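Protein modeling request. Please complete all fields; requests missing the sequence field cannot be processed.
Requester role: graduate student
Desired output: 3D structure, token encoding
Chains: 1
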Amino acid sequence: MATRSGAAAGRPYELVVFGASGFTGHFVAEEVARVAAGAELRGPLRWAVAGRNRDKLQGVLDRAAERLGKPELKSEVGIILCDVSDPSSLADMAKQAAVVLNCVGPYRFFGEPVVKACVENGTSCVDISGEPQFLEGMYLKYNDKAAEKGVYVVGSSGFDSIPADMGVLYTRDNLKGTLTAVESFLTVKSGPEGYSIHDGTWKSAIHGLADQDNLRKLRKQIGHKPLPIIGAKLKRRGLVFYSQEFKEYSIPFMGSDVSVVKRTQRYLHTDLQETPVQYAAYATVGGIASVIKLMFAGLLFFLLVKFSFGRNLLTKYPELFSCGRFTKKGPTQKQIDGSSFTMTFFGEGYCEGQDPQEGKPNVKICTQVKGPDAGYVATAIAMVQAGVALLKDESSLPKQGGVYTPGAAFSKTKLIDRLNKHGIEFSVISKSEA
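Delivered output (434 residues):
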């Protein structure tokens, strides 16, 4: 089995950012440039940007050079031309890299050719998909082949779902005893300029919700048995509820966090014999006016997404149907600079020496993951640090290659320390014994 450092040594680049000229890709490329310029890697980082258009890729490097005050970026960073619809160009890119950071979505349409090229050519890859069907489909199709090749395919390594997945592990590691259940609450703050999200995310949501039946079929095919429930069963909250902890209304979080955390917990339970943690994810939405607006938009979305003409309307007019939250242009730099997120975790479990199968939970813990703008800045930081962990924390990765969630791949690495140093901060807020 080839080792990562072995693969990196024989290849021109350690990291390649594929789709660097896309909306999210240019943030990722800039973040790689920032990390490469820092001292913590103990030596230069060999990296390149990849995509279809040389001028656009050069433009991304020029912008990063200007923003970071590093004119040498323009000549030091490689440029690889390749196209997601041309498999031989993807293979050529994969052969030049130890790790590919794949920023080309929606992944349900464009993700698999990149995974295939990477696995076949002994290259690890990281994506920032929040699409469970893509993530679980890649597990079904490529897990065995990736294990055979000794490469790591790590999905959902952006804001979906590194804060949630690593946050649950951080909570577990800081509880004295056995953690059995966690609820997370996401709060997103925007500055005076407001906020919008690029419509690429909107398109992924449209297709994901339209395709729920196929996700169920896929899970049947994978055929996992339900995870055992250890400790008191975690009660599910309603579709809309008033959260006493935050003094505002909350709803279940619609992203991929729950499915990703569940896959991590399954891996930790079946492969490492650890106690599986029950998990539920919520997002705070504010006062009653916000709830009414959200419910109206949500109802319309669910009605339209069932029909192809409805999906066409949603795709064509993202701003109208999302009450201005999603736009074709995405957020401005000012909006991004003014935005931040906090994810708060409430965990419960059983103190050391007590059997979690008996009695009520008797220890509690509250932890937090905080960071800058979730959609683009935190996503770029998380993705790049996942790539760095694959390169630098090699001895702490799972012994076998495969298709992994972030928590499964990185539970024993220094990823949380790395994120803390780069502005995604994990902290314990309180612990108590009931």
